[in-house]
Amino acid sequence: MSHASDSAPHILIVDDHPDIRNLLAKYLVKNGMRATVAANAAAARKLLVDHAFDLVVLDVMMPGEDGLSLCRHLSEATDLLVIMLTAMAEETDRIVGLELGADDYVTKPFNPRELLARIKAVLRRARSLPPGKEPAPDMAVRLGDWVFYPDRRELIGPDGAPAALSTGEYKLLSVFLAHPGVVLDRDRLLDLTRGRDAAPFDRSIDNLVSRLRKKIEADPKNPSLIKTVWGGGYVLAPAAMDPAGSET
Questions:
Q1: Which of 5, 11, 24, 96 has its CA 20 to 30 A from that of 236?
Q2: CA–CA separation, 118 vs 133, rounded Å?
Q3: What does each C-alpha distance from 124 to 26, 162, 169, 205 come to in angstroms?
Q4: Residue 68 in contact with residue 97, Cβ under 8 Å?
Q5: Contacts with 137 (C-beta within 8 Å, 6 or more apart), sequence order
Q6: How far is 168 from 246, CA to CA, in rounded Å?
Q7: What is the pTM of this model?
Q8: What is the mean pLDDT for each group of 10 consecutive residues in the chain (248 residues)?
């Protein structure tokens, strides 16, 4: 365990290889961060109770509870940023980790300088976005002629019929609802909905927005709810969002 300024980002390193976690901790501290190490998921869970971390560097392959399981817990129970460490051949684990909510991944063997750059980039993206406030789970939200029930993941149309939402569409809609009137570029939408996996996923945001528009816009080609900001990304028009009453 190492310390720097109390205002420095506090990173939790979870890896069963002592040489990796200890050398990485020393490198991060040398570069102005605070670092705490854990040899496994069980030790990490105990540290999470007593310490406030900004980001977790998490190895996938560990004895006992693996990194994917802990990543799922972190995604569901905390707002912590997560960078996964995976072996070069573990492509499936990388994809699953991103789907579970990891913000980025680095393949082993890695250069500590690269990991430091990834940590700084993830922290920078997270801090550059104004804090969002998602609707209360029991609060219905009106979007134009539609009503969205977050707790039921249900979107009800003007005719009273529900529209099926994929997991990606639900996450994207929730992000827009948490940041009405805020222009969100593709990088931020990727970070907030599915984690960052470089170029291959860039166009998926456009496709996801297109699918969502087809479900909620009266005229998807001339949207009034989710607007395109040329060169900037997308924005949920603030006027489109109004409380529709509490769930009973």
A1: 96
A2: 26
A3: 22, 38, 25, 20
A4: yes
A5: 150, 151
A6: 25
A7: 0.55
A8: 67 95 95 95 92 92 91 84 81 72 85 92 72 56 82 82 80 84 80 51 71 89 89 78 47
